[in-house]
Amino acid sequence: MSTRTPLMAGNWKMNLNHLEAIAHVQKLAFALADKDYEAVEVAVLPPFTDLRSVQTLVDGDKLKIKYGAQDISAHDSGAYTGEISGAMLAKLKCTYVAVGHSERRQYHAETDDIVNTKVKAAYKHGLTPILCVGEELEIREAGNHVAHTLSQVEGGLKDITAEQAETVVIAYEPVWAIGTGKVCGADDAQEVCQAIRGKLAELYTQELADQVRIQYGGSVKSGNVAEIMAQPDVDGALVGGASLDADEFVKIVRFRDQ
Ligand SMILES: O=C[C@H](O)COP(=O)(O)O
C-alpha cells in the first residue's frame, strides 16, 4: 500500500490580486481542519504578486497550507527583465514551484531544455518542483500520448540526481482537458501516471519511483475527484479553475467524502 501523502494544489493561474488572495487563503484556513492536513497536503500556487501577502498570512497565523509559485527563472539574478528567481521565491518561504506548465510551454515557448534548467534552478534554491507534463489532443488521437509525456518527464529531469528526484512532484495534465471541462477518464489518467512511475523506475530506482507523487490535472472538480484519486498511481491533483472557489477546493481536498 502506498504511503504517499496526496498533494492537492490549487494553481490560481493569473487570477486573484493580493487582497483577494488574503481573503481566499483565510477562507481556506477557516474551513480546513487538522484532520484534513493529516490526510492530505494542501498547497496554493498564487501569482507572484500575491506571494508576500500569502506568506505573511501563513507565517503570522501558523497556517498549515503550503504555497509556491507558478514559474521560476532559470537564472539566479541579473538583467532578466520580468523574471523572478528561485532565490526570491525561497526568501518568501515558498515550498513548491510549478515548472513547465502547458500554458508556459504553449504561450512562452518553453522547451524541455528550458523546463530542465528551471527544475535545476528550483533544486538549487531548495524549492520542490512540480514538473508539469502532458499531451495535446492531436498527440492523444494519434496514440502517442504515453511516449510524448514520458519524453517530457525524461527531458525535465535530465541530470537531476536521485537525491533530488525523490522529492519531485510530477503533474500529468493532458492539455485538451485543461479548462475545457473535458476530464480525462480515470483509466486514461491511470495509464499515463503508471507509465510515468515506470519511467521514474527506469531513470532511477523502483523504490524512488514508488515514493514520488504523481498528480493529475485537467478539469478536476469535487464531482470527479474521488474517481480520479481512486487510481493507484494518482497521488493528488493540480487544480486550476475549481481552486478559485474556496468551498469547491475544500471539497476537492476532502475527496474521500465525495
Ligand atoms: O494547473 C492546473 C491545470 O492547468 C488544470 O486547470 P483546470 O483545472 O482549470 O482544468
TrEMBL record:
<protein>
    <recommendedName>
        <fullName>Triosephosphate isomerase</fullName>
        <ecNumber>5.3.1.1</ecNumber>
    </recommendedName>
</protein>
<feature type="binding site">
    <location>
        <begin position="240"/>
        <end position="241"/>
    </location>
    <ligand>
        <name>substrate</name>
    </ligand>
</feature>
<feature type="binding site">
    <location>
        <begin position="11"/>
        <end position="13"/>
    </location>
    <ligand>
        <name>substrate</name>
    </ligand>
</feature>
<feature type="binding site">
    <location>
        <position position="219"/>
    </location>
    <ligand>
        <name>substrate</name>
    </ligand>
</feature>
<dbReference type="InterPro" id="IPR013785">
    <property type="entry name" value="Aldolase_TIM"/>
</dbReference>
<keyword id="KW-0312">Gluconeogenesis</keyword>
<comment type="subunit">
    <text>Homodimer.</text>
</comment>
<keyword id="KW-0324">Glycolysis</keyword>
<dbReference type="InterPro" id="IPR020861">
    <property type="entry name" value="Triosephosphate_isomerase_AS"/>
</dbReference>
<feature type="binding site">
    <location>
        <position position="179"/>
    </location>
    <ligand>
        <name>substrate</name>
    </ligand>
</feature>
<keyword id="KW-0963">Cytoplasm</keyword>
<dbReference type="InterPro" id="IPR035990">
    <property type="entry name" value="TIM_sf"/>
</dbReference>
<keyword id="KW-0413">Isomerase</keyword>
<comment type="function">
    <text>Involved in the gluconeogenesis. Catalyzes stereospecifically the conversion of dihydroxyacetone phosphate (DHAP) to D-glyceraldehyde-3-phosphate (G3P).</text>
</comment>
<comment type="similarity">
    <text>Belongs to the triosephosphate isomerase family.</text>
</comment>
<dbReference type="GO" id="GO:0004807">
    <property type="term" value="F:triose-phosphate isomerase activity"/>
</dbReference>
<feature type="active site" description="Electrophile">
    <location>
        <position position="101"/>
    </location>
</feature>
<feature type="active site" description="Proton acceptor">
    <location>
        <position position="173"/>
    </location>
</feature>
<dbReference type="Pfam" id="PF00121">
    <property type="entry name" value="TIM"/>
</dbReference>
<dbReference type="InterPro" id="IPR000652">
    <property type="entry name" value="Triosephosphate_isomerase"/>
</dbReference>
<comment type="pathway">
    <text>Carbohydrate degradation; glycolysis; D-glyceraldehyde 3-phosphate from glycerone phosphate: step 1/1.</text>
</comment>
<dbReference type="InterPro" id="IPR022896">
    <property type="entry name" value="TrioseP_Isoase_bac/euk"/>
</dbReference>
<comment type="pathway">
    <text>Carbohydrate biosynthesis; gluconeogenesis.</text>
</comment>
